[in-house]
Write a structure and sequence with these properties.
Strands 3-2-1-4-5 form a five-stranded mixed sheet. It is built from four helices and five strands; from the N terminus they run βββαβααβα. With 144 residues, it is α/β, with parallel strands linked by helices. β1 and β2 form a beta hairpin.
Amino acid sequence: MIQKKITMYSDGASRGNPGEASIGVYIKTLEKSYGVCIGYATNNEAEYSALVFGLKKIIALVGKKQAKNFSVECFLDSELVVKQLNHIYKIEHETTQKYFLQVWNIMLDFSEVTFHHIPREQNKKADLLANEALDGKGLQKVLL
C-alpha cells in the first residue's frame, strides 16, 4: 500500500506561564482545525498537549487500523519541544518526560512521525486557534 502523508501544525499558549492555557491544531491535509482550552499549564505543557491532541485526532479521523499507512509531518514553533523530540536536547523535568513518552507511544500508531521547527509567522493558523480558545471562542475545556 502507498504511504500517505498528513501535515499538521500545532501550538500551545499559556497566559501567565504558567496560567490559563489552550491549544491550537490545524491538520492541513484533512482540513480540520481545533482550538481548545486545557486549564492551567505552562507554555511547554501546552505545546506538548497540542501535539498529543493533534496526533490523537488524526488517529480518530483516519482510524486506528489505517494509521499505520500514514506518515505525519508535525510543524511547531516551539524549538525546545522539537529539539527534545528529535533527541537533540535532554528532557530533565518529570512532567515533560511524561509528555515525551506519550508522544513517543502515539508515534507507534503511524508509519512515521517527524517534527519540524518553524517560525511563529509560519504557524499563524494554529496560533490563532489557541488564542481564540483562550479568548472564549474555542471549544469547551478538555482534560488531556
